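G., the chain you wanted modeled:
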Amino acid sequence: MSPEIALLTNPTSGKGKGARTVDTALPRLRDAGYVVRNLVGRDGDEALDLARQCVDDGVETLVVVGGDGMVHLALQAVAASETRLGLIPAGTGNDVARYFDIPRKDAAAATDVVIGGKERRVDLARIGSRYFVTVLAAGFDAIVNERANDMTWPRGQMRYNVATLAELRTFTPIPYVLDIDGEQHRFEAMMVAVGNGPSFGGGLRITEGAVLDDGLLDVVVIRPMSKLELVRTYPKLFKGTHVHHPDYRHHHARKVTIAAPGITAYADGERIAALPLTVEIAPLALRVLVP
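Predicted structure as tokens:
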């Protein structure tokens, strides 16, 4: 009997790249001998229902075609289950694919990782019953996300650049209360980020040094700095060299509670909820296919 695999697509990912990517991936998987359950959700709720049905049916591998948002949706179904996650990137940021060295611009090569790759177990972060794999943004970056989501122009990364400049005009440091493994901290900061992995937002390495299977969260604090200094520091996030800035702080934790007024947190680029929130590590909760 041929093995069954589920292919779940967001056809609108990457300005329609998701639909085009399926045209490459689907025949390649079938040629490799898989029986492919080809699934497309009309919206996020239906896509999640389809993913959960695959897990309930015991499908060995759920392959998602899309960006980090699609991965985030799939996590809610496969986390802590025996169903493996496969990734064929078709989004804008694709940070999860970066984590695992999965080709981001070659759909055929990414499909080959699903066909011939090996399994790796990694940690996830958990907020109640909701999981994420990249970074929870809970500061200036989250405020920028909120503004960008309300904008219709421009598209892509430039939308976030425009939103950043707009928020900088009025932004002031945020008062935080953090509980890190039972130890309380009170301070003002520009942002707090909780990472399971090292980057978000298309390669911004805010939680540089985070390891995906160490059983720990990486909690990064950027203490107050001038707006000019924040602008100067931003490009360093792409290389992770911001860790040398005197206003950078880095903690490790298994559980952290973040409280701050007026902040709505984002994780995997998705809107989560208003603070306060508690984030816990879920050790080795994800089985993922890697090269």
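The chain is about 30% helix and 35% strand.

Shout if anything looks off.
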